[in-house]
Write a structure and sequence with these properties.
Layout (H helix, E strand, L loop, with lengths): L3 E2 L7 E3 L3 H25 L1 H7 L2 H14 L2 H6 L3 H10 L4 H11 L15 H25 L6 H30 L2 H9 L1 E3 H7 L8
Helix pairs in contact: 1-2, 1-3, 7-8
């Protein structure tokens, strides 16, 4: 899937994300933010005392978590979204080169070849998708306590709590990376990026199918 020139600025900009993809990202980010904030209010004593209304916070947290997969499921109706999911699931030799360069902290663009999505983005997408499903499953076990034995609920609580902490750290890293790349943020905000940035950061995007 090669980048398409944006009609009003054909020579300088390329289309990176469709409206549907931006909607999925924004909605998912909002729901994830609600989950993180309500979780913090449930587990950090100072925040719990400040906010109060624990029962309401629990309810908001539960329904936000239950709704988290919905934007992605609705996004599957978009052909462009499905095509990008296939690209995210495709890990090639150039991705291994990108990872080796990243581990060596080699910042040369030639050492980090990438298609529309680089190897780091692919790993993050796979990890966050898997973690979300685990959080959803363990959360349901904790929610419907009368349907499962005590050992299941205890194990689910342990996994849910520690994975939530891990997700918070990973999400902070994701946000930090985004803050460090204004052009990438622009692509998610407006759908287009500069051709110069696309050629520099995603040199194989033009030839990717």
């Amino acid at each position: 899937m090669s980048p398409r020139a944006d009609a009003p600025a054909r020579a300088t900009h390329v289309r990176r994300f469709s409206r549907a993809e931006r909607w999925v990202h924004r909605t998912s980010a909002f729901l994830m933010g609600v989950c993180v904030l309500t979780a913090a209010c449930l587990y950090v004593p100072q925040l719990a005392q400040l906010v109060g209304r624990r029962a309401l916070v629990v309810t908001v947290h539960q329904w936000a978590g239950l709704a988290l997969p919905v934007p992605v499921l609705l996004g599957l109706a978009s052909r462009v979204f499905r095509a990008d999911l296939r690209l995210l699931n495709r890990f090639g030799p150039h991705d291994r080169l990108w990872l080796r360069a990243a581990l060596r902290r080699d910042k040369r663009h030639a050492a980090r070849p990438a298609g529309k999505f680089n190897a780091g983005q692919k790993i993050y997408a796979a990890w966050i998708a898997g973690a979300t499903l685990v959080m959803l499953g363990t959360g349901l076990i904790m929610w419907f306590t009368h349907l499962t034995p005590l050992v299941w609920r205890t194990s689910a609580t342990f996994v849910h709590d520690w994975l939530a902490l891990t997700m918070g750290i990973v999400l902070a890293g994701h946000i930090g990376m985004a803050l460090g790349d204004p052009e990438a943020r622009r692509g998610m905000r407006t759908g287009t990026v500069s051709r110069e940035w696309a050629d520099r950061e995603h040199s194989l995007w033009r030839t990717e199918r």
